[in-house]
């Protein structure tokens, strides 16, 4: 029944020559159905996701060696739907197996340390699915656009990020990096919605309009970051996100792909089942 | 339509003279419907829970002063359904607004500190709903039964817990403490299920049978803890839990009650709406 697949989602991976302007934020690659069909594709894989996550979690709980983890990194301009991804996609999972971290403006203490200092402790441990709402990429995005760090330091960071992510991969963390790619027009519409609906005032920040004025600079900073840090082990996916339900579906299939690749099974008993049955029956 | 209510759930609060043996773990107080009706009561309040949680979260994000938090403490014998509560009840919430902490066997570093040392950092911050799967109560339960601490230290802890919880309450954390109360027979059935189903082996721990042999001592330790630490500001609820769907429904209504009591509203704009509309339109 499904017409969207993990491979369709993965086809959105970008290479080191990616040109952001060539990707239409309003497009829905590999999907041409109705909104109803989108909902169907979205929920259809919930059962499989749930079972795979439970297996992953179970392996960690049973202390199985080399139990992996999944880390989803969400980046995107303001109003690109990072929070909505967490809200809608992650409900498919058991809250016990999910770790969520949002990286806002760094504190003074965080600023005094290397940029990865606040990131490392939030990496999901074995058996967990982690999601970063913004991430270490802010340190080569807003830092580049706003000149918050000197050019040579930003240059250093691309390599540091690749090394960091290579280390995580070797420790069994599957990294999925997603840029929620929206158009400037769509952002305007979203900002206006936040100002026209009092239940959304809290999402509005006047500073967002200042960042918006630097749209082209941000697109350029994103493009450089994508090119420098898309790797075989931690690829970047540019997900057209003017259609939010489409973008959520894509992310869900990317998570499904990562979990499937782990070849998960239920952990075996690390005790004598017959003996324990006997003990319980006589207890 | 609902025939179960927040008041029904709250009627399970216990006083300082509680006698655990008088509470039937297989009973379903204030509810006499079918399983289907239970599911209905369970899901019927999802929309309200979702909206209240979003308001709570929004208030924290908008830096509203005195934004509160909710902390659910789950205690119960092995197989009493603590994990299932998280899995089923907490899916009603946005994962961004939930913090989950499971307190297993303490590490050497944790043991070297006061028993509240590992607990305090896990208390939910403003706007969050936290859930503890086991908690500081282990330090007056297994510690009492297994004599892991001297009697005078355990005696001290009841007071320390009450002080700690009073402080949290003053800082706006609504504390809900739940003992998932099961029968010894129901535990046996659950343990056998874990041994008869290879997808559940990971949940089985041979040590659980050793603890099970101390059933009466644990009931006594629970009874003492309930009596000493049930307070107006952080009451204990003993929830009959041989019927898991019933127990989950009760907990969901307790959470609903805590959120309703907060009189939550969407935070007002802390900027000039007209001016910002103008800025966005011209951006």
From TrEMBL, chains A, B:
A GO biological process held by the record: polyphosphate metabolic process
Regions that span the bilayer: none
InterPro entries linked to this entry: P-loop_NTPase, Polyphosphate_phosphotransfera, PPK2-rel_1, PPK2-related
Residues spanning the signal sequence: none
A Pfam cross-reference name: PPK2
Keyword annotations: Kinase, Transferase
Keyword Nucleotide-binding: no
Gene Ontology MF terms: polyphosphate kinase activity
Limits of the Polyphosphate kinase-2-related domain: 45-263
PANTHER family for this protein: POLYPHOSPHATE:AMP PHOSPHOTRANSFERASE, POLYPHOSPHATE:AMP PHOSPHOTRANSFERASE-RELATED
Protein name: Polyphosphate kinase-2-related domain-containing protein
Organism: Corynebacterium aquilae DSM 44791
